[in-house]
Design goal:
The chain is mainly alpha-helical. 64% of the residues lie in helices and 0% in strands. The protein has 11 helices and no strands. It is globular, with a radius of gyration of 18 Å.
């Protein structure tokens, strides 16, 4: 067994232990598959709509409309999406066997992908400093977890970037389910708007960011190794 594979297994066991305990795997303090030097998101995204622009007001109106019309079942759905930022949000596409308990190597890959979302998206949020809907207008009442810090910016959406990234990774593991996986990623991103914590353009920008990120990550040797291990593990567990 190579040193790399030994580390991979140890990391997978750690990720599985944390997920089993109901705690998210901690984000490493440094990039795993991609660094800000490789992708400066702020340089490739358009500016978000300006405050009080026609588009910004239309997006705010959409947030209010979703707030006024969301039903109890929908609120439960978006809260569940808010709480889970990993590849296993796609278990409703792949079934009960698709779980961290069955797939520790896949859980490890997912944790690294989520880590790198923060590494890449964080600087862009600070650059654009777009206020979240509820910080911009107090009549917006979010139903998901919020941060009272006014520096917790909205554009692009971190959750949505993670959702799209995990989806793109999963389509390389289970390409047979590509359409359903990508549809679920769109639903996951939309949950952020229903929650009242993001605007439409926040999640649309995140989709662009995820596609840019995956293009860089696919050239990373560690990503390729972890993807190969996760693909083998997942397809064996699912019997495909």
């Amino acid at each position: 067994m190579t040193n790399f594979h030994s580390k991979l297994i140890i990391g997978a066991i750690t990720a599985f232990s944390l997920l089993s305990a109901g705690a998210p795997a901690p984000k490493p303090h440094k990039p795993v598959f991609i660094s800000p030097e490789q992708l400066d998101v702020a340089s490739i995204l358009p500016n978000p709509p300006g405050d009080n622009s026609i588009q910004a007001l239309a997006e705010l109106a959409e947030v209010h409309h979703l707030q006024d019309t969301r039903q109890a079942a929908q609120i439960l759905h978006v809260k569940a999406d808010d709480a889970e930022e990993d590849i296993f949000v796609f278990k409703n596409v792949l079934g009960d066997k698709f779980s961290p308990a069955n797939l520790p190597l896949t859980a490890l890959l997912s944790a690294h992908v989520h880590n790198d979302e923060g590494v890449i998206v964080g600087p862009a949020k600070k650059y654009f400093h777009r206020l979240r809907p509820f910080n911009y207008q107090s009549s917006v009442k979010p139903v998901c977890k919020t941060n009272s810090n006014m520096d917790d910016y909205s554009y692009p959406s971190g959750h949505s970037t993670t959702g799209y990234l995990e989806a793109l990774v999963l389509t390389m593991i289970v390409p047979e389910k590509r359409d359903a996986i990508l549809a679920r990623a769109d639903d996951y991103a939309h949950s952020r708007v229903v929650c009242g914590v993001h605007y439409r353009t926040d999640v649309e920008a995140s989709k662009s960011v995820a596609y840019a990120m995956i293009g860089v990550m696919m050239n990373n040797a560690q990503f390729k190794e972890e993807l190969k291990a996760a693909r083998s593990e997942t397809r064996r567990a699912l019997g495909i």
